[in-house]
């Protein structure tokens, strides 16, 4: 039977699994902040996000099991997104998460554009954005300080029109 894929708001009971994913070396090394996040820090982040109605914290679920996380931060007609899949997710999970989140962004939230940023060494995310139809709109040079190195950040954009004509 085909997986039933859904998206729901993150709630407080998701915090342990989200922190486990976020602190996993395969995820943490691609984030702007690379230290291990403490439970206290994580809780404070969640509470801060809850006070901002422009931030959507989303859990991607397959057949009732959380498989990935995405965040949309809305600014007028567009949103910045961030995401990761469970470190033990099978191949293809990211693509399904991407489709589900982008459908939500363009259909439910009625956004005109979704923007993503990837560290220049995150080849998986760069290929992933392109596979979803994003355009590489520019490069922010030496923009992030990662383990004492200044690295470029690739900026991606996907318009509603691009998505609807996929
Ligand atoms: C990026 C991420 C979400 C992709 O999820 P995934 O389940 O591996 O992706 P999929 O298997 O669905 O792959 C979809 C497409 O993305 C691209 N892709 C994904 N991982 C890739 C990799 N390691 N190298 C090259 N291309 C990759 C491919 O184009 C792939 O299509 P294909 O399989 O037909 O070639 C996942 O690797 C992840 O969570 N990474 C760590 C966190 C992260 O980097 N988040 C983004 C920060 S900007």
TrEMBL record:
N-acetyltransferase domain segment(s): 5-165
InterPro entries, per database record: Acyl_CoA_acyltransferase, GNAT_dom, PseH
Source domain of life is: Bacteria
* Pfam families to which the protein is assigned, alphabetical: Acetyltransf_3
Name-wise, this protein is UDP-4-amino-4, 6-dideoxy-N-acetyl-beta-L-altrosamine N-acetyltransferase
Q: What is the scientific name of the source organism?
A: Aliidiomarina sedimenti
- The coding gene here is pseH
